[in-house]
């Protein structure tokens, strides 16, 4: 059952109730209107985690070959290797930025409770499959990255598909000042390799409202919601109240037509 929340409704748990990896952390966020590439929101994570990074300095990026979700026979609607630096929306603020870097699109956040997004265009897409490779530069393991689809140009509403190196994931319908989980809150999956240096993330946004999240070729979550069946697409990153460092680079973005 989906859950809808107003922004900044936060709930705390005692230390004894803090979740471990086999349980879902509580995460609350609020979406504010009026932003383009950088969106202001409030997020609170109940409980705290301590991690030791296991990332290798010699990271081999995940590729589309690792994603069984992609079908080479599908019609390609848009593809970008980020070698052209004039395609995606960029922004630079003291504590958060979206910039081209080393033939990729780099997103950095150095403060809590922040969401940033970027789009290659305002074209309306319908019934599409999206893929992107995400390289993790020692981000906090709870710092989220992902894709969005069906963004509405008049309201900014969208579907967000989010993943974190700790294995956290969800699909969320976001509208200004309100958000709705389309699954069981934030969950943790053992199918998402913990603290990898690179992930291949893919999503399906079907014209029939079918929404599916894949990570490294594994189907993680499928839901159905018909509120928005077309719109623009793009990339996202965000932090929670106990997360204040995020550094991800996106590459090899692909949009193909679903059957």
Overview in brief:
The chain has about 260 residues and is an all-beta fold. The chain has no helices and 20 strands. Strands 1, 2, 3, 8, 9, 11, 12, 13, 14, 15 and 19 form an eleven-stranded antiparallel beta sheet that branches. Strands 4, 5, 6, 7, 10, 16, 17, 18 and 20 form a nine-stranded antiparallel beta sheet that branches.
Question: What does the model show?
Answer:
It is a single chain. The protein has one domain: Jelly Rolls. The protein is 0% helix and 47% strand. The radius of gyration is 17 Å and the shape is globular. The strands form 2 sheets. Strands 1, 2, 3, 8, 9, 11, 12, 13, 14, 15 and 19 form an 11-stranded antiparallel β-sheet that branches.
- The helix content, as a percent range, equals under 10%
Tell me the total number of β-strands.
20
Main beta sheet, described?
11 strands, antiparallel
User: What is the CATH class designation?
Assistant: Mainly Beta
Strand content: over 45%
Domains (count) = 1
Number of helices: 0
CATH superfamily membership, which one? Exo-inulinase, domain 1
Distance between the termini: 28 Å
What structural category do the secondary elements indicate?
A: mainly beta
* Uncertain spans: 1-57
Q: Measured on Cα atoms, how large is the radius of gyration?
A: 17 Å
Q: What is CATH's topology name?
A: Jelly Rolls
SSE order in H/E notation? EEEEEEEEEEEEEEEEEEEE
Q: Based on the structure, what is the oligomeric state of the protein chains?
A: single chain
Quick check: average pLDDT?
Answer: 80
> From the coordinates shown, what is the CATH architecture?
Sandwich
Shape: globular
């Amino acid at each position: 059952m989906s859950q809808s929340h107003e922004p900044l409704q936060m709930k705390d748990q005692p230390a004894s109730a803090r979740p471990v990896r086999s349980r879902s952390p509580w995460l609350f966020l609020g979406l504010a209107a009026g932003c383009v590439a950088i969106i202001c929101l409030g997020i609170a994570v109940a409980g705290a985690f301590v991690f030791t990074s296991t990332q290798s300095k010699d990271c081999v990026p995940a590729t589309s070959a690792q994603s069984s979700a992609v079908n080479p026979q599908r019609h390609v609607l848009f593809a970008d290797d980020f070698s052209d630096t004039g395609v995606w929306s960029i922004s630079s603020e003291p504590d958060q930025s979206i910039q081209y870097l080393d033939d990729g699109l780099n997103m950095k956040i150095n403060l809590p409770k922040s969401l940033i997004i970027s789009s290659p265009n305002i074209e309306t897409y319908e019934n599409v499959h999206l893929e992107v490779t995400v390289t993790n530069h020692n981000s906090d393991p709870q710092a989220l990255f992902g894709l969005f689809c069906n963004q509405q140009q008049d309201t900014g509403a969208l579907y967000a598909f989010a993943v974190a190196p700790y294995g956290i994931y969800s699909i969320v319908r976001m509208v200004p000042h309100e958000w709705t989980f389309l699954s069981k809150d934030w969950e943790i999956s053992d199918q998402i390799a913990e603290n990898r240096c690179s992930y291949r993330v893919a999503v399906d946004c079907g014209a029939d409202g079918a929404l599916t999240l894949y990570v490294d070729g594994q189907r993680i979550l499928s839901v159905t919601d018909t509120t928005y069946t077309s719109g623009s697409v793009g990339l996202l990153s965000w932090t929670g109240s106990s997360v204040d460092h995020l550094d991800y680079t996106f590459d090899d973005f692909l949009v193909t037509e679903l059957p």
